[in-house]
Amino acid sequence: MFPNIITVLCSAVIPLFIGFIYYNPKVLGKPWMEASGMTEEKMKGANMPVLLITMFVLSFFTSIILFTLVVHQTDIYSLLMNEKGFEEEGSAVMNTINDLMAKYGTNFRTFKRGALHGTILAIFFAFPILHINAMFERKSFKYTAIHTGYWIVCLALMGGILCQWG
User: Fold this and answer.
1) Three-class SS of residue 85?
2) Does residue 147 fall inside a structural domain?
3) 144-147 contact pairs (CB < 8 A, 24+)
4) Against a cut of 0.90, is the pTM above it?
5) Per-residue pLDDT tens for 52-104?
6) Distance in angstroms (rounded) separating the CA atoms of residues 76 and 133
7) CA 63, CA 68: separation in Å to the nearest integer?
8) Are 110 and 163 in contact (CB under 8 A)?
9) In terms of CB atoms within 10 Å, which of 12, 38, 66, 86 comes out highest?
10) In a domain, 102, yes or no
11) Which residue range(s) make up the domain with 41?
């Protein structure tokens, strides 16, 4: 099961759009700058095209792996990929996969389910990573909370889109 590439690309744009809003000085930009030690001068020195392209590429990577985590049907392929006849149409294993997908291929494929899984991943995967780094950088919990909030919103929306239309 391969994800719809258009959906993956659309999902990968979400962190850029959410970041423009979320880190705007009128939303959480000023508290983030205070918590991170960022200044207007440091921000002006950034090469924005390189930052945005890099962010999109990394978001694309995130979107691809997120698809496998929010769409349960990908597990069928993972379980059977080493079986003889995998990817050979008409083989016993491919007939099993086709039967399973015909019967269960749309189970749990909703925006709500994907958003739930994205949120769970943000809380139980992104948050610990962000907070571990923040502790060693001697950043406040506020710093971690701001970034975790951003990733909860992003991964919930990405997961929802990928699960519904991926």
Assistant:
1) coil
2) yes
3) 146/28, 146/31, 146/32, 146/35, 147/32
4) yes
5) 999 999 999 999 999 999 999 999 999 999 999 998 999 999 999 999 999 99
6) 35
7) 9
8) yes
9) 66
10) no
11) 5-72+108-165
